[in-house]
Every structure is written in structure tokens, then in C-alpha cells.
Amino acid sequence: MGIFEARTSAGPGRIIVTLTGECDLSAREHLTAILLDALTRAKAVFVDLAPLTFLDSSGVHSLITAHHAAKHTGGRIYVVNAAGPVAAVLDLTGVGALLRAPADEHRHV
């Protein structure tokens, strides 16, 4: 589909993964690898979706895969700053509620 980019940056006690563009089947393996790698470097991974314009079930799959991996290692993955169609997909699938960051943590991303 379109261009997709995942950038990581470190914050205090966390890794922030910022997703840009369109996340579809062509991005699934790359996104999953980025998220799983981030979980090896920090117990808390925040996925910033503000610049993301499209998310399909493949991207949701990557987020759920990372969520299960985090549970096995005592970590957490959160999604933040979702808007528009991306937020709608997360809400429809229940992933938005599952991976919602605590309010006091959300402001640090």
C-alpha cells in the first residue's frame, strides 16, 4: 500500500516506537520485529500512533503479538495518540482498551 516507517527512541525507563504512514500486510513482519526488539531493551514500550494514517488487521496482529510477548517477560506495551481511522480500528477490535496507557504515563510520550 503506502509508505510505512517505525522509529524508536529511548525515554526514561521506556522505549517509544513512533509509527508513520500506512501499516498494512507489507509492514507486519517489520513492525513485529521492531516491537519485539524494543521489548528486549525496556519493560515499557509506548507505540506512538499520532503520525499513522492507516492501520489494518496486520498491524493489529503485530500489536497483539507484542502484547503477548510482553506479558511473558513482565513487560507492557501501550498505544498512545491514536486518532481518526486508526483509533476507530483500535476501538472496534478492543485493542485500544487492552493497550491503553495509564493517564499519568501517556503525557510523557
Automatic annotation (TrEMBL):
- Highest taxon in the source lineage: Bacteria
Q: Which GO molecular function terms does the record list?
A: anti-sigma factor antagonist activity
| Gene3D superfamilies documented for this protein | STAS domain
SUPFAM superfamilies hit by this protein:
SpoIIaa-like (SSF52091)
UniProt cross-references to InterPro entries, sorted A to Z: MlaB-like_STAS (IPR058548), STAS_dom (IPR002645), STAS_dom_sf (IPR036513)
Query: Where in this chain does the record put each STAS domain?
Result: 4-109
Looking at the Swiss-Prot or TrEMBL record, what is one Pfam family this protein matches? STAS_2
Protein's name in the database? Anti-anti-sigma factor
**Species:** Actinoplanes lutulentus
